[in-house]
Fold each of these.
Amino acid sequence: MSIKSFEKLVGIMARLRAKDGCPWDKAQTHASLKKHIIEEAYELCDAIDSRDPEKLKDELGDFLFQVIFQAQIAKERGAFDIDDVLRTSAKKMLNRHPHVFGKHRAKDEDDAYKHWQSRKEREKSYKDRKSILDGVPKTLPALIKAQKVSKRAAHRGFDWPDVKFVVDKVHEELEEVKAEIKSGNKRRLAEEIGDLLFVIVILSRFGGIDAEESLHNATKKFAKRFGNMERALKKRNKKFTECTFEELYRLWRKNR
């Protein structure tokens, strides 16, 4: 690691926040930068998906700069600085990996997670929590949040015996959705669809699948196939509204 490069970036941030620095940078607060952090996180994920090293390098730099930005604002009000952030992170990682830096050993990924979660729960910031589910960010996307809540509950021992029970539960929830479609009660239908989605998240976990990534890939596949349909119809000088459902479905299957 190049210490000089890191210090240079920290110095640039300090200069931007100086009295004669950039008006926009000087006006920012912890809160005003939240939307930019989220935006940079999504851009970083896009870069990872692109498998382009240059894009990934660029977006990692942008994301790192957001961390340095937050630390600089904190330093100016005497709370902490970037060195404190690095020391805290290093200490936390050493503590949460007893299976690497201690005597314990992890048999597999799930066992490693248990070691991680167990050490996490001993930390000062966790002692005041009344539930293992406390601390799951409220603003997380619903699918990611469902995965975290489900995994934490399972870590406590509240889980289905095996995948067969989960599959049966999916069928049960689907039947309840069908019943509410017939009833016409939108409030109850929304509730039952939510239950079905949550059980599917659990099913994903049992299969060792990341539900967020799985849905992302399914959406990407849908968009690609839909684009193929658009191009095929354009060649025929036809619009979607001019086609029957049967015609569109045949075209959909053809462009799988």
Amino acid sequence: MTAPLLTEIDHVAIAVRDLEAAIAYYGDTFGATVAHRERIDSDGVEEALLKVADSYIQLLTPTSETSPVARYLEKNGEGIHHVGYRVDDCAAALRSVAEHGGRMIDQAPRPGSRGTTVAFVHPKGAFGTLIELVQE
């Protein structure tokens, strides 16, 4: 039997229009604090990561009107955007997606936030869920 490629949930990403308001809500309501904050210009987003046990809530807001998160907010409104799964080898996990007929957004792993390596799997090949593979 082959070892599982997904090792744990890295984060649940929530698209928001007002990052400061979302941070305040999670802080005031749940006592959550920002563990990491970063602007990712290549994806057109700013993120705030709130630590929950060994995982994160990733609050995302667009930094440009053309970013995928801006388009998501326009079409769907605020809410869960994607789920990030930790993997030991992002390239191997991406190959497995391709070998099993999945649709990929990223054809190869690329740099992500926090110094990670990431790749996205298209929701049309993953039962309606946008998946991010995250290698620390």
Amino acid sequence: MPSTTQLQLPNDAEKLLLHSCCAPCSGEVMQRLLDAGIPYTIYFYNPNIHPLKEYEIRKNENIRFAEKNNVPFIDGDYDKDEWFKRAKGMEFEPERGIRCTMCFDMRFERTALYGHENGFSVFTSSLGISRWKNMDQINDSGTRAAAHYPNMTYWTFNWRKEGGSKRMIEISKQEHFYQQEYCGCVYSLRDSNKWRLQNNRERIEIGVKYYGDE
């Protein structure tokens, strides 16, 4: 069921820069923005995703949906070495801990910089639609990144509202998106596999699971 809330960008902005983490999370956000007639550009900057095969699959799924809807797509750098440098000492931090804060900060700082240099005054992210994420943690990182530049705002809209999370799954099945089974980084993959083995489940197999498969 479509949302009944009319979307409106903060500060009467005319366009939006959308940081996207993957096609499943951004699909509903993208569709809702399209339905609202809000011009936007996708910025894909996720150097945390490991390994490269997983990164390329997630990126290409996002590109496919963007091209289908004629949405501009900016492919950010895959500077994984810098990500690992920043993550040093946080290898065993839990999900939603300080390593995740570092990761959000790094991705949003680059997004805000791109927005500042390319005429955007508002940016947001699809990360918050996932129920596995801490929305306050994400919003705090976005707000910090925006504060580096005058007249830049991070839009803290709650994409989970009014059935957003449910529509995210519906669109993912409809579009047959790749269904990743861990957050993205090597430490998330390690911990997810550890939990699976402890619960008599197979390790994650990259590149084989898609929404809508039986």
Amino acid sequence: MNKHNLFSSTYKKWLGLALVICSLITVFGCGTLVNGRGWGQDATLFPGWDRVGKAALNAALEPETWAPAVGAAAFQIGSLDRNLANWASKRTPIFQSQDNANTASEALQATSEAAAVVTALATPSGEKSDDWAWAKAKGLTVGIAAVALTEGTTDLLKYTTNRTRPDNSGHDSFPSGHASRTAVCDTLATRNLRYLDVPDAACMGLRAGFFALTLSTGWARLEAKKHYPSDVLAGMAFGHFFGAFINDAFLGLDSPKNFFFSVEPSRKDIYCSLHWVY
């Protein structure tokens, strides 16, 4: 078996194992949330402008949105964008070849998609089967809308920017579709963890794992010579923003506050601070 086939086989085994492990938690999908409602039960098309505005602001202020956006802008300085893309695709330090990197990006994206679906199914949505099914259908529709909006925005930008890929295989380099889709799915999966009864340590581990999936997918696209760093970072920013925004605005659940703004006056000055909770 050559190196490429061995690598593909390994990733398929890891993907299969991840799906099996994640599927085990679906047995906890019965019951209700702390407020007595089911996950997805209160999903709505008309959440109100106040909730929409707060969800949009919260999503924009989260580090997973603005940090990669700032990074994408920073890579426009000089030749940073092209230099890192060339180095990654030539050295392929993680995936060992461009073909392996391309295969890995597909497997990592599929794992993120599975994580979003499985965590949604694992959330408590009621004791009765018909109530459970209806709540899940509504909740999953919100997730599908987030993914669709992310992909629509990504495709629109690809068409309007017309950026040539590093390997000259097309003119749809910006932003990375793999990065944006993985980011939105991982964001939805992370949001779903809020409503699962799992230990704090396990929750933090899963959150870190989902974030690692997003980063790994983006890096794989660099080694595959399909994108520049700014393409990947922009895709991550769009994916997280739309995932967080659509989920928090339309799912109908109260989300914990992720940032706190405070003003502290003194005799001579006024101190303003903004704190994020991760």
